[in-house]
């Protein structure tokens, strides 16, 4: 039997249309390298992660130019139309021996500010949540539900509400099984946790850092740059 491995999956086959850029958002520059490069650096540098599987668009012409593409921990697969399709493709690329014993951490390509301590916390949560867990952050703001005309329909109680972050961590074979079943049933799978919830499994919540933002709109780029600079300064002073 293969030893238990810890793998990361990065679905990077999207085009990021909301950024309004000529290239997929994960390849937009963030300081001296692109968003995806920063994301991969955070995963590749963690000693507990054995390999990083990146799901790419069939027409991707940018990934091969990244220095990270030649890292010995990196593997690539062809992704699908939706995030869930890409994650499932990455899971199905694993050998049966590895899949039966591996944990996978699925992380957004456009979350470049992931901190190693958050990875540590998530991995440690396997003892408390053997069914899997996600990084998340408690909702701090007053929440409003909109009506059909754009007006406030109601104020939503924020107690017990969390913002889902990534990585989201699950046993590889279980996640592959539930993702495939949910997609076959026509379920809308917005993240890995939603596929597990559809199957009646309740993942754990692990409190993550507020700077683990997802770059979705152009205004997010300078904010992500500030967070990366702050993290770099903290490392230099430790």
Notes on the structure:
This protein is an alpha/beta fold and 238 residues long. The chain has one domain: Spore Coat Polysaccharide Biosynthesis Protein SpsA, Chain A, CATH 3.90.550.10. The chain has seven helices and eleven strands. The strands form three sheets. A seven-stranded mixed beta sheet has the order 5-4-1-6-10-7-11, sandwiched between helices. The protein has a two-stranded antiparallel sheet with strand order 2-3. Strand 8 (143-146) and strand 9 (152-156) form a beta hairpin. 36% of the residues are buried.
What's the SSE blueprint?
Elements: E1 6-12, E2 29-30, E3 33-34, H1 35-44, E4 51-56, E5 74-78, H2 83-92, H3 96-99, E6 103-106, H4 116-124, E7 133-138, E8 143-146, E9 152-156, E10 162-171, H5 172-184, H6 192-198, E11 204-207, H7 220-237
Helix pairs in contact: 2-5, 5-6
């Amino acid at each position: 039997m293969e030893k238990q491995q810890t793998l990361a999956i990065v679905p990077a086959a999207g085009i990021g249309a909301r950024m309004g850029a000529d290239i997929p958002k994960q390849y937009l520059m963030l300081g001296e390298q692109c968003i995806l490069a920063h994301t991969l650096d955070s995963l590749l540098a963690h000693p507990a992660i054995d390999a990083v599987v990146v799901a790419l668009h069939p027409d991707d012409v940018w990934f091969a130019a990244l220095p990270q593409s030649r890292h010995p921990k990196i593997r690539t697969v062809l992704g699908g139309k939706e995030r869930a399709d890409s994650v499932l493709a990455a899971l199905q690329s694993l050998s049966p021996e590895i899949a039966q014993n591996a944990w996978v951490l699925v992380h957004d390509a456009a979350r470049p500010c992931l901190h190693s301590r958050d990875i540590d916390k998530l991995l440690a949560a396997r003892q408390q949540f053997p069914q899997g867990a996600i990084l998340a952050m408690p909702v701090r703001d007053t929440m409003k539900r909109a009506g059909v005309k754009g007006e406030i329909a109601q104020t939503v109680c924020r107690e017990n509400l969390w913002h889902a972050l990534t990585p989201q961590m699950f046993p590889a074979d279980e996640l592959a099984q539930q993702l495939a079943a949910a997609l076959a049933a026509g379920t809308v799978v917005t993240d890995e946790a939603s596929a597990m919830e559809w199957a009646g499994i309740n993942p754990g919540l692990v409190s993550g850092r507020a700077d683990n933002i997802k770059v979705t709109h152009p205004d997010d780029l300078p904010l992500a740059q500030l967070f990366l600079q702050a993290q770099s300064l903290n490392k230099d002073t430790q």
